[in-house]
Design a protein that fits this description.
Layout (H helix, E strand, L loop, with lengths): L13 E5 L4 H11 L3 E6 L20 H7 L3 E4 L5 H11 L4 E4 L3 H7 L3 H4 L7 E6 L14 H7 L3 H4 L14 H24 L3 E6 H8 L1 H10 L18 E3 L5 E4 L4 H11 L14 H6 L1 H12 L4 H10 L4 E3 L3 H6 L1 H5 L3 E6 L3 E6 L23 H7 L4 H9 L4
Parallel strand pairs: 1-2, 1-4, 2-3, 4-5, 5-6
Antiparallel strand pairs: 7-8, 8-9, 10-11
Length: about 400
Amino acid sequence: MAAAATEGPLAGIRVLEVANWLAAPAGCALLADAGADVIKIETPGGEPYRAYRGTAGELPFNPFFELDNRGKRGITLNLDRPAAREVIYRLVGESDIFVSNLLPKRRERYGLTYEDLKAYRPDLIFVSVTGYGSSGPDRDRAGYDYAAFWARSGIMNLLGEPGSPPPPQRPGMGDHTTALAVAGAVSMALFHRERTGKGQQIDVSLNNTGLWVLGIDVQTALSTGGENARISRRAVPNPIWNSYETGDGRWIQLVMLVADLYWPRFCRAIERPDLEHDPRFSSMAIRTENREELIALLDEIFARRTLHEWAARLDAEGCIWAPAQTMAEVIDHPQTRARGAFAEIDHPTHGRIQLVDTPVKFSDTRVNARGPAPELGQHTEEVLLEAGYTWDEITALRTDGVL
């Protein structure tokens, strides 16, 4: 494999980000990982995500903000001041991509619609990232991923045991999934512009991402007209595509979709070769018919040994399975480390820190976390000077409360 270049595939591309919280900034973080110059615009008080601590406890810095804003430059603008609009227009004239998660009505209020901005950069790629999209009756409805991605897409309603409360999603699941869509869409639009010279507007929504993630279920409903229902783990059609609890309270996930092929191996792994030709379980069709009886039997069998013991037996027979890992196991697993799943960066106040790195690996270009998130307004003067502002003009903007 060739040595990775120091410049990424998006070197020379400038991105202007007017967004907060997660999906849009996380998408821009991926663009920064690929070498783009991402300029993050925040209000003078800073965006709310800076103050979020969630599960971070008493850490002296916000690791989540670092994760989703690494490698960017940061400036502050008070969008409620008309002069801020002129600053953005000047920056747009020197940018390739504009990314925002402002709702359509707020974009219109601030003069930041695609029609407004492309007057200053005709080939601009304009990316809108919202809960429900820029058209339709819910275009101006606020929606975090818990609402637009998790609940409204149908994911929430289909998870959990029948009759039990649906589970909550984990923080940022829909946002980080949507961030991948943002990065992919921008790359395609850049390729289109390279061939045609034309920019365009891209409309990304958390809700549509949720529909794609749940695509198999959504497609089933589209094709059959029926309503999908939750399936209990005690009644799944294929008992060796199911989860089981081990004797030490751990869970494993069996994933043997081609059930008849793996059935003999599985019977050997659980040291019950007699089950292979048991008339109750001798084929996939018969196992489906007697699934509740078989699952109850497998529950008893798996409860007799620890996860470690089952791991050796299942691997010895080539079964397809995985443990439900703890975060410590995930982070320390040799495969995770071998894949370079984490990047180490130098933080200006907290030393060497680790961040979850870009999920895609390239052989010949550098795509990875490149540096810390910007301090609030850290690069305001630097960016404005690059845009042609004088020190006197910058001072006047500060005096007028624009910066």
